[in-house]
Write a structure and sequence with these properties.
The complex is a heterotrimer of chains A (484), B (486) and C (95).
Chain A: E1 4-15, E2 52-53, H1 54-66, E3 74-75, E4 78-81, E5 91-94, E6 104-109, E7 115-127, E8 131-137, E9 140-144, E10 151-157, H2 164-181, E11 193-203, E12 213-218, H3 221-240, E13 248-253, E14 258-261, E15 274-275, E16 282-283, H4 286-294, H5 300-309, H6 315-322, H7 325-338, H8 341-358, H9 370-381, H10 387-398, H11 405-412, H12 420-433, H13 435-443, H14 446-463, H15 470-483
Parallel strand pairs in A: 12-13
Antiparallel strand pairs in A: 1-10, 1-11, 3-16, 4-5, 4-15, 6-7, 7-10, 8-9, 11-12, 13-14
Helix pairs in contact in A: 2-3, 5-6, 7-8, 7-9, 9-10, 12-14, 12-15, 14-15
Chain B: H1 6-15, H2 20-38, E1 41-44, H3 46-61, E2 72-76, H4 103-110, E3 114-119, H5 153-160, E4 166-170, H6 177-183, E5 186-189, E6 210-214, H7 217-227, E7 257-261, H8 271-286, E8 290-294, H9 302-317, H10 336-347, H11 350-363, H12 368-392, E9 395-399, H13 414-418, H14 425-430, E10 434-442, E11 445-452, H15 458-471
Parallel strand pairs in B: 2-3, 2-4, 7-8, 7-9
Antiparallel strand pairs in B: 1-3, 4-6, 5-6, 5-10, 9-11, 10-11
Chain C: H1 5-14, H2 21-38, E1 62-63, H3 73-77, E2 83-84, E3 87-91
Helix pairs in contact in C: 1-2
Classes of the chains: A alpha+beta (484), B alpha/beta (486), C alpha+beta (95).
Keywords (chain B): ATP-binding, Ligase, Nucleotide-binding, Protein biosynthesis
Domain Amidase (chain B): 22-462
Organism (chain B): Chromohalobacter beijerinckii
Chain lengths: 484, 486, 95
């Protein structure tokens, strides 16, 4: 059996979270009535002209800095010419020869916690197209140009990935970077991040790349994995059956988990790129780049390192908590309230994540705020409540019963009894009520006593309705039973 | 009234000799009576014009008259005008009523100018004779068998025939200056970036520039003051203060250094045109200017470079005319390809298609470097020729066109038509300003003197033209056409 | 560089301009003569000359990221050839 190696490169289109379009003052908000956010410039009406959005430039530069890329002093907009109904001007304003972001690299983390680097070939700014609505309009296709002119950053990787898992880890890393930077909402369901996946296979050990197929518009982490898995298998089967992979564009069908060639005739594209005469060269000096750098937040890889090194979290915990900006910010807020990173990490990844997953919520939608969770952890740490009671309190917070852990503890009477006198009283009562067990205990071997004490602890806890501090009960019981 | 300049009419309005309504009504009457023979207008906007004239009269009565208040003029049908058809001389846009005003149109309105309508032009500004219009050719008022030049032929003919005192045109390779020369009027192409291109239907974006066409340089100065300036909607418009051009018209010419590019006086130059131009230069010498010969060694490459760059940009600029959002759409398209191909085959005229094909071909794979990049390199050499010349002299002078207006239908071959622009095209490639000034006649047809100046030296250019018009009366000559009508 | 019939058809297809065979033949002739004139460029040595895309050595000005345009759909679609429910209509697109 021949051993095959998969080679994957990705082109990821990220919609930038600007208020207005890349070349016009129309809104980029999602979901408006058709063509109500397409102004004269977006519609390509006669005589209109583009003017570049400063925020789109700033966002692209921040991305470049986040992936250690070179930011060239001059970049150029060019026209990519082709006809399609969702492309109003008959050309897409894009960048080719001189993109705004040069070569860089992204660190990806695999499931086993290991990291590796994927090279970025370049990233460039361009305008998005509109949408074709294929529902039947009197046998016609409807065109909505609201999306036309939305700024896109197209991030082109080198063919550095060797498995679907690596590809997914790469997209997740990009997703984390763009959401951390706040340059995109990263909402894949609304098309804020769209991937074109280039896949080829080659015999293991062979240096030359195989012929690749490009799978267009794969729009979720899961679909990327499935599309690649299908495509790799298809290509290997094809070659092993004596066939050849054809360089082509394919579409992923999520209903059947398969890719298929596009039905439209694949004609030799000739986009006739040339510098857009309506836009001038964009020049960014060192001061501008430094200014953007100063505005950047801490990035996921930096955060992960800090969580590990300064907060003493495990590599795994640090990786999970730093994976999204929302998660990391929540965690840090919890930590700041309760003062203990490990406790905060345990609660965020344990009880909170379990509840979020069960109800399919994002961390931003959590009914329990970071302040509330931090307050709850404080009460566990200062022994106000037991760990068991804490779970009850969390659930009550989740259900919105009260505003704070303290209010719930108060209302439900969950405060631990830590008054030694009161606990001693309960212990004396239990010892008095259990002469047989006491006698057995005292006759027993030291090695067996540890197990036997459980009975007495249980009785005391029962008597206290769970509010006695179990450690205190344990040590006082030991003292009293061992005394005689 | 129709013989007067903008400046004279402004004074008449100010003195209360006539109202704007009277002035505009008389011009509209004249258009109605004469334009059947000239075909210089595509649309005449009578009602809107009279309403604007009334508004200007009221503003003046209230003591609130702006620079062009109540003055009639015409707009080349390439400038978008809200609520008025903007056809660009094409079947493609025959049904297009612009939903917005071009920036220059807005500025004219704000200054109180009254547009009487939209003038005829070569389709999408592609042409040098105005014979490429969907609305038919325009006649030259000096000789109805001659072309008015192009592409702003309607504007030039309308001004020359006294239908309007001034008009706006656009110039991509000579389209203001050459028709101004052919029709015996004054036409200025400003520095690239001086006048906003927003709302001006694009032909070749890196060359297009709007500008004034009028009887005198003084009128051109008045119009340029109004339309020039930075526009936030045009990335290529320049943020630079607009000088008071009118105030600088009288600067003395003593010591002015004039360069005569030897390449502009070579083979192919009509002897009568040459004589007229050399006579004009003598006038300048008599006014104290010094004349010397200079060389623009890459002149012969201007037309070849232009016919790569302009069609390349045009092929892309005109892709938006696809029958989907505005403009012509073919009947019952069977599929998308059919919609595109038939719409564009029907909507565009022959010359437009020719340039789209040339531009598409030269940008396509395997040809881009040899044509497009090469042409851009040569473009730099051509600009450098001018920069070098302006190290030696203040202005350059020569003929605007190698011949006077030719007969309608005389130029059948596209290449020989292109060669008509030999003296004007390099100016657009370099982005410098140029003006054509009436300087005599060849037979019964006017001759234009072209004056060129460095980037943003419009004030000097207008002053140089104005001083000539103080010393000569070529700009005062009127064609016999329409003369019997008061 | 000569231009052939196939080049004209290819350019016409890329530019989506419908041409009959006869028209194409006419354009081969026109375009050949135009390109012959253009070919004078090839005689010039332009080594090390930086291509000039704009006549002025200016750089792009940036616009503040503000929403300044609001819906004018009715106005813009008043000049559209085919519209339903606010959508522009084209013959069915098959992917």
């Amino acid at each position: 059996m021949m051993q095959w190696e998969t080679v994957i490169g990705l082109e990821v289109h990220v919609q930038l979270a600007t208020q207005s379009k890349i070349f016009s003052g129309a809104s980029t908000a999602f979901g408006a009535e058709p063509n109500t956010q397409a102004c004269a410039v977006d519609l390509g009406m006669p005589g209109v002209l583009p003017v570049l959005n400063e925020n789109a430039v700033a966002m692209a530069v921040k991305f470049g800095l986040a992936v250690d890329a070179e930011i060239p002093e001059t970049s150029l907009f060019e026209r990519k010419n082709y006809f399609y109904p969702d492309l109003p001007k008959g050309y897409q304003t894009s960048q080719m020869a001189q993109p705004i972001v040069g070569p860089g690299k992204v660190e990806i983390t695999l499931d086993d916690g290991s990291t590796r680097s994927v090279r970025i070939h370049h990233a460039h700014l361009e305008e998005d197209a509109g949408k074709s609505l294929h529902e039947d309009y009197h046998g016609m296709t409807g065109i909505d140009l609201n999306r036309a002119g939305t700024p896109l950053l197209e991030i082109v990787s080198e063919p550095d990935m060797r498995s679907a898992k690596e590809a997914v880890a790469y997209i997740k890393a990009l997703h984390a970077i763009v959401t951390y930077l706040g340059i995109s909402d990263g909402n894949m369901a609304e098309g804020s991040m769209r991937c074109d996946v280039n896949v080829s296979v080659r015999p293991k050990g062979q240096a030359a790349f195989g012929t690749r197929a490009e799978i267009k518009n794969v729009n979720s982490f899961r679909f990327v994995e499935k599309a690649i898995a299908f495509e790799v298998e298809r290509q290997i089967e094809l070659i092993e059956d004596g066939g050849q992979v054809v360089q082509e564009t394919r579409l992923f069908d999520p209903e059947r988990d398969e890719t298929r060639g596009m039905r439209t005739k694949e004609e030799a594209n000739d986009y006739r790129y040339f510098p857009c005469p309506d836009l001038l060269p964009v020049t960014l000096d060192g001061a501008y780049v430094d200014h953007q750098r100063a505005l950047m937040p801490e990035l996921p890889s930096e955060k992960r390192r800090r969580f590990e090194n300064q907060l003493g979290l495990s590599a795994y915990d640090a990786g999970v908590l730093a994976s999204s900006r929302a998660m990391a910010e929540y965690f840090e807020a919890v930590k700041d309230v309760c003062g203990d990173a490990k406790q905060a990490a345990n609660w965020v990844q344990g009880e909170l994540s379990a509840n979020l997953n069960r109800e399919n919520l994002e961390i931003g939608d959590s009914p329990v705020t970071a302040e509330q969770l931090g307050g709850l952890i404080q009460r566990v740490m200062d022994d106000t409540i037991s760990g068991k009671a804490a779970k009850q309190v969390f659930q009550a917070l989740w259900d919105g019963e009260e505003d704070s852990a303290d209010a719930i503890i108060e209302a439900r009477g969950l405060k631990q009894v830590t008054d030694t006198g009161a606990i001693e009283g309960m212990i004396d009562q239990v010892i008095a009520d259990s002469p047989v067990q006491v006698a057995q205990y005292r006759e027993a071997d030291e090695s067996k006593r540890g197990k036997m004490i459980g009975y007495f602890v249980g009785q005391v806890m029962k008597a206290s309705r769970g509010t006695a501090n179990p450690q205190q009960v344990n040590s006082l019981l030991k003292q009293k039973l061992d005394q005689a | 009234m129709h013989d007067k300049t903008l400046t004279e009419l402004a004074a008449g309005l100010q003195a209360g000799e006539f109202s704007s309504r009277e002035l505009c009504q008389s011009a509209l009457d004249r258009i109605q009576r004469l334009d059947g023979d000239l075909n210089s207008f595509i649309s005449v906007t009578t009602e809107q014009a009279l309403a604007d004239a009334d508004a200007a009269d009221q503003a003046r009565a209230a003591g609130d008259a702006a620079a062009l208040a109540g003055l009639p003029l015409a707009l080349k049908d390439i400038f978008c005008t809200q609520g008025v058809r903007t056809s660009c001389g094409s079947k493609m846009l025959d049904s297009f009523v612009a939903p917005y005003d071009a920036t220059v149109v807005e500025k004219i309105r704000q200054a109180g100018g009254v547009s009487l309508g939209k003038t005829n032009m070569d389709e999408f500004a592609m042409g040098s004779s105005n014979e490429n219009s969907f609305y038919g050719p325009v006649k030259n008022p000096w000789d109805l068998s001659a072309v008015p030049g192009g592409s702003s032929g309607g504007s030039a003919a309308a001004v020359a025939a006294g239908l309007v005192p001034a008009a706006l045109g656009t110039d991509t390779g000579g389209s203001i200056r050459q028709p101004a020369a052919f029709c015996g009027i004054t036409g200025l192409k400003p520095t690239y970036g001086r006048v906003s291109r927003y709302g001006m239907v694009a032909y070749a974006s890196s060359l297009d520039q709007g500008g004034p066409m009028a009887r005198t340089a003084a009128d051109c100065a008045l119009l340029l003051e109004t339309i020039a300036g930075h526009d936030v909607r045009d990335s290529t418009s320049v943020a630079r203060v607009v000088p008071d051009y009118s105030a600088e018209l009288d600067t003395s010419l003593a010591g002015l250094k004039i360069g005569l590019p030897k390449e502009y006086f070579g083979d192919g130059l009509d002897p009568e045109v040459e004589t007229a131009v050399r006579e004009a230069i003598k006038v300048y010498e008599s006014l104290g200017a010094k004349v010397c010969e200079v060389s623009l060694p890459h002149t012969h490459l201007a037309i070849p470079a232009y016919y790569v760059i302009a069609p390349a940009e045009a092929s892309s600029n005109l892709s938006r005319y696809d029958g989907v959002r505005f403009g012509h759409r073919c009947e019952d398209p069977t599929d998308l390809e059919d919609l595109y191909k038939r719409t564009r085959a029907e909507g565009f005229g022959e010359e437009v298609k020719r340039r789209i094909l040339i531009g598409t071909h030269t940008l396509s794979e395997g040809f881009f470097d040899a044509y497009y990049l090469k042409a851009q390199q040569v473009r730099r050499l051509i600009r450098q020729d001018f920069l070098d010349a302006f190290d030696e002299v203040d202005v350059l002078m020569g003929p605007t066109a190698p011949t006077p207006a030719f007969d309608l239908g005389a130029q059948k071959d596209p290449v020989s038509m292109y060669l008509q622009d030999i003296y004007t095209i390099a100016v657009n490639l370099a982005g410098i300003p140029g003006i054509s000034v009436p300087a005599g006649f060849a037979g019964n047809r006017p001759v234009g003197l072209q004056v060129l100046a460095p980037h943003f030296a419009e004030a000097q250019l207008l002053g140089v033209a104005h001083q000539f018009q103080q010393a000569t009366d070529w700009h005062l000559k009127r064609p016999a056409f329409g003369k019997e009508m008061a | 560089m000569a231009i052939e019939h196939a080049d004209v058809l290819r350019a016409a297809h890329l530019a989506r301009v419908g041409l009959s065979e006869d028209e194409a033949t006419g354009y081969v002739d026109d375009l050949s003569r135009i390109l012959k004139m253009v070919d004078q460029l090839q005689a010039v040595d332009t080594q090390d000359i930086i291509p000039l895309a704009h006549p002025l050595d200016a750089t792009q000005r940036l616009r503040p990221d503000e929403v300044t345009e609001h819906s004018q759909r009715e106005r813009f679609q008043a000049c559209a050839p085919a519209v339903t429910d606010g959508l522009y209509l084209v013959p069915r697109v098959v992917e």
